[in-house]
Write a structure and sequence with these properties.
single chain, alpha+beta, Lipocalin, eight-stranded antiparallel barrel
């Protein structure tokens, strides 16, 4: 059976390598600047009306996305960890309390970092396998390509709060998530600390790719695939000028 495993793995990698290479966009002046301007314009009047507006700081924050292997040949594949080193985000702490507060966050799929070795090493055996630079590039091209998330057409992921309830440090938020040109609502628990001088938020959510019209990555008739469920964890920090 060893020859079959080797052949299967080579075929899977060849399928990944066949995806067109996607550019990495970092702080471009086009759509990225527009998104920042839109959020800034939304929160400027809130700051003027009272309360406090916190600007999220990517350098002091962490956003991790976990994708998991699947299929009969799953052990020949890898789990993946992605990170968002750059994003825009604001949190408004209303003077009237939690119900009137709100937050927004946006990042680009084509700015995500894939399978940083340090991130993988910190996650234990299920993520411990080393992935070469070539395989990482292939994974990125496949996941962001035309047969999966279509990042060239739908580059943005946006999260907007619709309702916040609870009391410090534990809150529940009803949010709208925009991904792949579609928007879905969900509820997420949040742990918030540092207020009112500083903002620190911890939380997680589970996205089903198929809920957003995304077909999870699959090769060789599903023998090697990515699970539909994707876990997003965040540890955010923000300051109020």
């Amino acid at each position: 059976m060893r020859w079959f495993q080797i052949a299967l793995l080579c075929a899977a990698l060849a399928a990944c390598a066949g995806a067109p290479e996607l550019p990495v966009t970092r702080n471009s002046e086009g759509a990225a600047a527009a998104a920042t301007t839109d959020l800034s314009a939304t929160y400027a009047p809130l700051r003027a009306a009272g309360g406090r507006v916190f600007t999220l700081n990517p350098a002091q924050s962490e956003v991790r996305i976990y994708a998991f292997r699947s299929g009969k040949a799953a052990r020949l594949g890898h789990n993946h960890v992605l990170s968002a080193p750059d994003f825009q985000g604001f949190f408004y702490l209303a003077p009237d309390g939690t119900a009137a507060s709100r937050f927004d966050m946006a990042f680009r799929l084509d700015q995500l970092a894939f399978d940083d070795p340090q991130h993988r090493a910190a996650l234990g055996p299920a993520f411990a396998s080393a992935i070469s630079a070539e395989d990482t590039a292939s994974t990125r091209n496949n996941m962001l390509g035309d047969n999966n998330f279509q990042a060239a057409r739908f580059p943005w992921v946006r999260i907007h709060s619709l309702q916040i309830s609870g009391d410090a440090p534990k809150f529940a938020a009803r949010i709208a998530v925009e991904l792949h040109g579609q928007t879905r609502e969900m509820r997420v628990p949040l742990t918030v600390s540092g207020l009112p001088e500083k903002l620190m938020v911890q939380g997680a959510l589970v996205l089903q790719q198929s809920d957003f019209g995304v077909k999870p990555l699959s090769v060789l008739g599903g023998l090697l695939a990515v699970q539909d469920a994707v876990v997003v964890e965040f540890n955010l920090s923000g300051d109020s000028p």
